[in-house]
Amino acid sequence: MELRLLETEAERNLYRAAMTEARANKGGKFRETARSRLSEIQLTFARLYGVFSEADPNRLLGGFSIHRLDEFSQSFPVPNLSHLPPSGVYEAGQLWASSHDAVPALRKGSMILLGLLQAQALLIYPLIIPRDISQFYKVFRRVGAPFELAFAETVTGDKVYLQAMLLEGDQLRRQVELASRDGFETRSGHSLVRFAVPGFAQQWAQ
User: Fold this and answer.
1) pTM to 2 decimals?
2) Where are the domains of the chain?
3) Topology of 2-125+170-185 in CATH?
4) Closest to 96 in 3D by CA, of 25, 156, 11, 195
5) N-terminal to C-terminal alpha carbon distance within the chain
6) What is the dihedral of CA 55, 63, 191, 163, to 10 degrees?
7) What is the pLDDT along the chain (206 residues), one digit of tens a residue?
8) Strand partners, 192
9) Contact between 108 and 195 (Cβ < 8 Å)
């Protein structure tokens, strides 16, 4: 598998289109409000990484956005991360996958990347209402209570809630080690990371 940094405008537009299609096919249960610019900020200014299979190197299978907190701030005021240097904290978002098969590759590739970037912590904001996907991030620590997302609503107009979650310290180092132990190849300032996936889905749940 390959994890690639999508740098050109054409590549970033491909990411947007593929993400929109994947989410539509899965019957999204919420949407951003008409005034919201949250996703557009991340899709425009954060780094976008996509996963590709070497068997079909032109097909984008999934991806995520990532930015460091000294590049621009965390998306929401919670949690308080003042105990960590902004240069060591990364926030990931806009996560999507075209199939379940792409998920282990996204997880493994992101952990290898965080190791290469020497990250001290990874911050995420998974949806918890109307559908709780925080349960899929077992190695992350919940930080604070769920909070209302003012920028989105369900398709029926109800409120949406997120849960701040953090992976740091020994837990982060363990996940990086697990992801990296089978070996990997990186090029061009980590804009491309090549790795094998077998067996990582089970390791991630440990």
Assistant:
1) 0.90
2) 2-125+170-185
3) Aminopeptidase (3.40.630)
4) 25
5) 22
6) -150
7) 999 999 999 999 999 999 988 877 776 666 677 777 778 888 999 999 999 998 888 899 999 999 999 999 999 999 999 999 999 999 999 999 998 889 999 999 999 999 999 999 999 999 999 889 999 999 999 999 999 988 888 878 889 999 999 999 999 999 999 999 999 999 999 999 999 997 434 433 43
8) 4, 187
9) yes
Q: Is the peptide bond before 57 cis (omega within 30 degrees of 0)?
A: no
Can you tell me the distance from the alpha carbon of 45 to that of 50, in angstroms, rounded to the nearest whole number? 15
CB 29 within 8 A of CB 130: yes
DSSP assignment letter at 134: G
> What tokens does 44 get?
């425009």
* Nearby residues of 87 by Cβ (< 8 Å), 6 or more positions away: 68, 69, 70
* Residue pair 147/76 in contact by the 8 Å Cβ criterion: yes
**Identity of the residue numbered 188:** S
